[in-house]
Design brief:
single chain; about 325 residues; mainly beta; Porin; 14-stranded antiparallel barrel; about 10% helix; globular
Length: about 325
């Protein structure tokens, strides 16, 4: 039986941990020694617009919302689902993915193809003379499997094979993502964890250098309020190549048809020093909206960045019986 606690108790718990994270972020952080030491940087980017719009909080995302981002989210799908995402990233970089998931016997399976196009670059000689152009890009293929072990517990894994190319140089890697989603006996609460990019670079750009992958551990919670159309999200991410990241998100549901999102993420110490920020949360904000039209879901995320370039993300998902 699911217990119903007063809303203020849930709010107090989430706000308590949020403020604790904020306090730690402001006063107890240092620059990570692994900063800038990993390759395949696109693996750190969240492709889903719905998740990105709410502070990129992903640890407690389930079903269609977390599909192809949280490994265990596929266990919440019943009908076949086609999901497509597109990102207009920094400096003309384009990032897209398309995936399909459905239940087969007692397990849920998903398959996703991802591409990243970094555009065209100018090739120069050692003297700085232009000698032509070259391109760069990445591709990845993912198999996702998940299972609902109990009514309150889902687990999942994603196996990805990927290749990266810069001009005539290439690199290859294989990764595994592991995820768990748990629904405790408190109304509207979900907690989860994701370990991402556990694997190895099987072929580096150069034999003289061994690339590393950006390993990420994210834990978080989601709380849907019982008597108000709001859902709260909070995540903490522990990367191997950067400082701890704290994220918070808010979702407003308008009759379960239209959704509005806002969120924020902490900066790394290096970013704070670069932008001379007074607090961790002075520069990374997220916004967006979504539409739920029965079989069709559309989401848009806007991540403003005054220092470099704004990021726009679009995700469309379609239920296929």
């Amino acid at each position: 039986m699911r217990r119903s606690f007063p809303e203020f108790v849930h709010l107090y718990v989430i706000l308590f941990y949020g403020l604790l994270a904020f306090n730690s972020a402001v006063y107890a952080r240092s620059i990570n020694d692994g900063l800038g030491t990993t390759g395949f940087a696109w693996l750190k980017s969240v492709s889903d617009a719905e998740i990105s719009a709410a502070g990129e909080c992903l640890a407690a995302r389930d079903s269609r919302a977390g599909l192809f981002v949280h490994p265990a989210a596929v266990a919440g799908t019943t009908d076949g689902t086609l999901k497509m995402s597109y990102i207009s990233h920094y400096v003309d970089t384009q990032y897209g993915s398309i995936g399909y998931a459905r239940k087969i016997r007692d397990r849920n399976w998903g398959f996703r193809l991802t591409y990243v196009n970094y555009g065209e670059f100018v090739r120069t000689s050692k003297a700085g003379e232009k000698t032509g152009t070259f391109t760069a890009g990445d591709m990845g293929f993912t198999v996702n499997v998940g299972k609902q072990l109990r009514d309150d517990l889902k687990v999942g894994a994603m196996l990805s094979l990927m290749t990266s190319k810069i001009d005539d140089f290439s690199a290859q890697a294989a990764t595994v993502d592991l995820g768990v989603l748990y629904t405790p006996p408190f109304e509207g609460v979900t907690v989860g964890a994701v370990l991402m990019n556990l694997g190895k670079v099987t072929k580096s750009y150069s034999s003289a250098y061994e690339d590393r992958l950006p390993l990420l551990l994210t834990v978080g919670a989601r709380k849907k309020l019982s008597h108000a159309p709001f859902t709260l999200y909070t995540d903490v991410t522990f990367p191997n190549d950067n400082d701890i990241v704290y994220a918070f998100g808010l979702e407003l549901s308008l009759r379960d048809v239209m959704f509005l999102y806002a969120g924020t993420k902490s900066r790394s110490v290096a970013d704070m020093n670069s932008f001379k920020s007074k607090t961790d949360f002075s520069g990374i904000t997220t916004f967006g909206f979504g539409l739920n039209l029965n079989r069709y879901r559309f989401h848009y995320a806007y991540l403003p960045d005054d220092a470099i370039e704004d990021i726009h993300k679009v995700t469309i998902s379609i239920k296929i019986p």
